[in-house]
Amino acid sequence: MTTLAARPRKKHYGKGSLTVATWVVAILFVFPLLWMILTAFKQEADAYTDPPKLLFSPTFDQISNVLSGGFLPYLSNSAFVTILSTALVLLFGVPAAYALSLAPVKGTSNALGFFLSTKMLPIVAAIIPLYIISQNSELLDTVWALVILYTSMNLPLAIWMMRSFFLEVPHEMIEAGRIDGANLPTLLRKIIMPVVAPGIAATALICVIFSWTEFFYAVNLTAARAGTVPVFLVGFITSEGLYWAQLSAAALLASLPVMIVGWIAQNHLVRGLSMGAVK
Amino acid sequence: MSTLSVDTPKSHAHAKAEEKRGLSTAAKRRLPLLPALIFVIAVTQLPFLLTVFYSFQSWNLVRPGSRHFVGLDNYIDVFSDATFLVALLNTVVLTVVCVLVALLLGLGLAILLDRKFFGRGVVRTLLITPFLILPAAGALLWKTTMFDPTYGLLHFVFGTDLDWLSEFPLAAVMAQIVWQWTPFMMLLILAGLQSQSKEVLEAASVDGAGRWRTFVSITLPHLSRFLQLATLLGAIYIVNSFDAIFLMTQGGPGTASTNLPYYIYQRAFEGFDVGQSSAMGVIVVILTMIVATFALRLMFRTFSVSGGVK
C-alpha cells in the first residue's frame, strides 16, 4: 500500500527537479548571450569591472552610438544581399527540386550527388579565382558579387531540402488530378504547391540565416562599399577590450533580424534542417 | 539512409517510364533542372578549375611579372611546409572534436526537451538562439566577455588570471564553435525524437524494458538517420570554420590555432601567394573528397548495421 501511494508522488518530485535542471542547463548554456544583451545596455565603464556588475542603470547610448556610427549601410547591404540571393535560390531551386522529385529522368541521382558534392568543396579552394574574377569583372566590393556567391552557396542545400518536401506530395493525388484532365500549371497550383509551400518557406528561412551570417566571402571580397553586418563587427577587433558595451550593442543589432525571424519560425526551422525527414 | 538515399523506388520507376517515352519528353523534363545546374557549375566548378590551373604556377601578386609555370613545385613546397601540416592537424582535431561534442551535447539537450514541462517553449527558444546569432558576434563575445583574463566571466567564475586565448587557443575556439553548433544538432535530434512512434515506446514499456534499454534498442536506431544528417551537415560547415579563428586568435599564438581555411586565407590575402595558396586549396579539396567518400560511407554503414534502420 505504502509503495503504491508513495510512487506517484516520488515520480512527480523527480519530474519537478528535472524541469528545474533543464532550466538551469538552458540558462547556463545561453548565459554568454544573456550577458551580451545586458552589456549592450551598459555604459562602457560598467561593462568591464571586476567582479562583473549585475546592477546598473540601463542606457540606450550604445545602441544609438552604433546606429549613428555607420552601421546602417552594412545593414542595408545585408538586407539586399540576403533577400535577393534567397529569391534567386527559390527561382532556380524550386523548378530543379520539382524536376528531381516529381518528374525525375535518367541521371537524377547524378545531378543530386553533384549538388551535394559542391557543398563538400571547401570554399577556401575557390576564393583566389573568385577574387581575381570579381576584380576583373568590376564586381569586387559590390553587393552583386555576394548575391551571386550566396545563391550558389545555398542553392545545393536548398534543392536537397525542397526535393524532400516535394517527395511528400502523395503520388495518387497527382495521378487523380491528371486523370481529371488538369494540366501542369493547375496541378502545381491546386495540388503540389499547397503541400510543399511550408517546406519552401522552411528552406528560404535557412537560406536567410546562412546568407545573413556568412563571413568568409564578405570579409575577403568586400572592402569599403559592400560590407555586410558581420564585416561591420570586424572593426571591433582592433579596439579590443575598449568598447565592450558598444561591441555588445553592435552584436545584438547585427543578430536581431535573424534572431527574431528564427524565433517566430522555429518549427519551420526544424522541418527545414531535417530536410523533411520529420512527418 | 532514406533521407540521403536518392534511389527511391519511385524515381527508378519514373526514370524507366521516361526512357520508353522517348528523348523529347526527357529533355523537356530536364529543362527545369538546367538553370540551377548551369548556375552552380559556373559559380563553383569553374573557379575551382582555375585554382587547379594557378596551382601549377609561381605567381605572387606583389611581384609583378613573377608569373610562370612551375609544374608541381608548389605542391612539393606545401607538403614540406611545417605550418601547413600543423594547420591540417588542427583542422582535423577541430572538426572531429567539435562535431562529436556538439552532437553529444545536442543529444542531451534534445532528450531534456523531449517531454512536457513548464516553460518548454521558452527553454527551446533560448537554446536555439546561439545558432541564430552571427558567428562573428558569438566569436567576439566569447573573446571579450568570456575569455578576457581580467574582466571575463571565466576569470570571475574560476578566479584565475589565465589568458585562455593564448594558453589554450584551439580549445577556446572549439568551445565557441561547439556553443554555436550545439543548438543545430539539438534541433535536428529533437525532430528525430518527436517523430518516434508513441505506440512502439509504450509497447516497450509494457514489455518491461527500462528507460536505458528502450533508449539503446529503440530510440537510438530510430535517431540514426537524424544523427547522420547532423554529422554530415555539421562537418561540412565546421571544417570550413573561419570566423572564430579570424576574430578570436588570428590563428595564433604562432600557429597554435591555425586551421586550413585560415592558413590559405593568410597565404592568399596577406602573403599574396596565388600559386601556393591555390595548391593548398587543391590539396584540401582532394583530402575532403577522400574523407567524404570513405569515412562518411563507413560511418553510415556502421550506423545502419547497428541500428538496423534502412
UniProtKB/TrEMBL annotation, chain A:
Annotated signal sequence range: none
GO BP: any one term: transmembrane transport
UniProt topology in membrane: Multi-pass membrane protein
Keyword Transmembrane helix: yes
CDD domains associated with the record: TM_PBP2
A Gene Ontology term for the protein's cellular component: plasma membrane
ABC transmembrane type-1 domain mapped to chain residues: 75-265
Transmembrane region(s): 20-41, 79-100, 112-132, 144-166, 187-212, 243-265
Highest taxon, organism lineage: Bacteria
Compartmental location: Cell membrane
A UniProt-annotated Pfam family: BPD_transp_1
Keyword terms of this UniProt record: Cell membrane, Membrane, Transmembrane, Transmembrane helix, Transport
PANTHER family cross-referenced by the UniProt entry: ABC TRANSPORTER PERMEASE PROTEIN, MALTOSE TRANSPORT SYSTEM PERMEASE-RELATED
Protein family: Belongs to the binding-protein-dependent transport system permease family.
Protein name: Carbohydrate ABC transporter permease
Organism encoding this protein: Amycolatopsis mongoliensis
UniProtKB/TrEMBL annotation, chain B:
Keyword Kinase: no
Stretch list, region Disordered: 1-21
Keywords: Cell membrane, Membrane, Transmembrane, Transmembrane helix, Transport
TM segment ranges: 31-56, 84-113, 125-142, 168-191, 226-248, 279-300
A Gene Ontology cellular-component term: plasma membrane
Subcellular location as annotated: Cell membrane
Membrane topology, record value: Multi-pass membrane protein
Location of the ABC transmembrane type-1 domain: 88-295
InterPro entries: MetI-like (IPR000515), MetI-like_sf (IPR035906)
UniProt record, GO biological process: transmembrane transport
Domain of life: Bacteria
Listed Pfam families: BPD_transp_1
Family assignment from sequence similarity: Belongs to the binding-protein-dependent transport system permease family.
Protein name (database record): Sugar ABC transporter permease
Annotated source species: Amycolatopsis mongoliensis
